[in-house]
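Quick start: what a row looks like.
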Amino acid sequence: MISKMSHLLGSRWGIAIKILPLVLVIVVLKIFAHLLGWEFLTLNSLFTALISANVFLIGFLISGVLVDYKESEKVPGDLAASLEALADEGKIILEAKQSPIAQEYLMHVVKLGRTLLGWFYKKVKTTELLDVIERLNYYFLAFEPLTQANFIVRLKQEQNLIRKTINRVHTIRETTFLGTGYAIVELITGILVFGFLFIRIEPFYESLFFIAFVSFMLIYMIFFIKDLDNPFGYAEQESLVEDVSLQPVSQGCERLERYLSTK
C-alpha cells in the first residue's frame, strides 16, 4: 500500500515537487528586488499579451503531443494481440501434431515478448529485437508441411505488424515534437519570469502571489509537455508523467509461459 501511494504521488505530483524549489527561488529574488528598489517596470497590456501568446503556444504544443500519446496508448494492446495470434497457431500445431518444433516456436514467441519488454526499457537494442522477429521466419518455413499456407500468411502479417509498430515506437522515442516550438516557449517564459522580478504591483503581497502562481503554471506546463512527448520513457529517471502501461504484453507472456509449463 505504501509503495502504491508513493508511486501515485510520484506520477501525479512529481513535476510539481520538482519545480517548487525553482518557484521558491523566483519568489526570493522578487523579494530582494522589492527591498532593493529595483522594480522599475509597470504592468501593462503588452506584458499580459505576452502571457496570452505563451499560453497559446503551450496549448498548441500540448495538442500536438497528445495525438502521439493517444496513438501510443494502443501500442501495448496491439503488440500483445499480435503475440497472442502468433502463439495461437503454435498451440494448434502442438495440440494436433505434437510437433517439437511447435513447442520450440512457442518458446521463441515468449522470448520475443520478453525481448520487447526489455527493448521498451532500453535494455535491448532495436537491431537485436528485429533479429528476434526475423528468426520467426525459420519456424514459418518449418510449419509448411504441418499447416495450411493461409495460416502461415496470417502469421507473416502479424510479424509485419509487429515490425511496423516497433519502428513507430522507435520514431516516437527518438523524435522531439517541434523542438523550435519548445525553444520559443522556454524563451518567452524566461523573459516573462525575468520581467516579473522587476514589475511593480501593489500591494506587494499580491505581486508575490501572482508571480509565484504564473511562474509555477508556465514552468509546470513546459516540463509536462516535454515528459508527455515521450510516452515510452520507462528507462528515463527524469520521466515524471505516467507512461503507457505495458501490462498487456507482460500478461500475454505470462499466460503463454503457464501454457508451456503444462506441456
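That is the whole record. The first strand starts at residue 41 and ends at 42. Residues 1-9 have pLDDT under 50 and may be disordered.
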